[in-house]
Design goal:
Helix content is 51%, strand content 14%. It is α+β, with helices and mostly antiparallel strands. It has one domain (2-118): Glutaredoxin (3-Layer(aba) Sandwich). Strands 2-1-3-4 form a 4-stranded mixed β-sheet, sandwiched between helices. Bound molecules: glutathione. Glutathione is lined by residues 46, 49, 51, 88-91, 107-108. It comes from Methylophilales bacterium HTCC2181. This is GST N-terminal domain-containing protein.
Length: 122
């Protein structure tokens, strides 16, 4: 079972590496605006988790700058996630905003929907 999980994880990483989406290009002023919106976002994730790969691909495709934290091997990151987010489940987006309570958003689809809305430039 451990081997099958390890093998599937490697397959996911290989397929991901071979099919990486091309990052979108924005004019500098727009990229600066987007960077400002994401500057206090952090994604807690596992390298080979398919749901995390899905979110990381969205981040890459949309040229978002978001810190990634490994919550599998790094015990400090894992504790931060469990103690503040409430569960050891990834992906989880930590959302810090000025003068607002920090939010911990679980579920890959919810994270992608949130990031799409948050970084939309009108
Ligand atoms: N429906 C969730 C599924 C997330 C999920 O199952 N994540 C797994 C890793 S792939 C997890 O965190 N498992 C907990 C653990 O391994 O401790 C999503 O789309 O984000």
């Amino acid at each position: 079972m451990v081997f099958i999980r390890w093998f599937l994880g490697k397959c996911i990483l290989l397929i991901n590496a071979l099919t990486l989406p091309k990052p979108m290009l924005r004019i500098k002023a727009d990229q600066d605006k987007v960077d400002k919106k994401t500057q206090f976002f952090t994604l807690y994730q596992f390298e080979a988790c398919p749901f995390c790969v899905k979110v990381r691909r969205f981040i890459r495709k949309n040229s978002l700058k978001i810190d990634l934290k490994d919550a599998k091997n790094n015990m400090a990151n894992k504790s931060e996630l469990v103690n503040n987010g409430g569960k050891h489940k990834v992906p989880c987006l930590k959302i810090e905003k000025l003068n607002e309570k920090t939010m911990w958003l679980y579920e890959s689809d919810a994270i992608i929907a949130f990031l799409a809305k948050e970084t939309e430039l009108s």
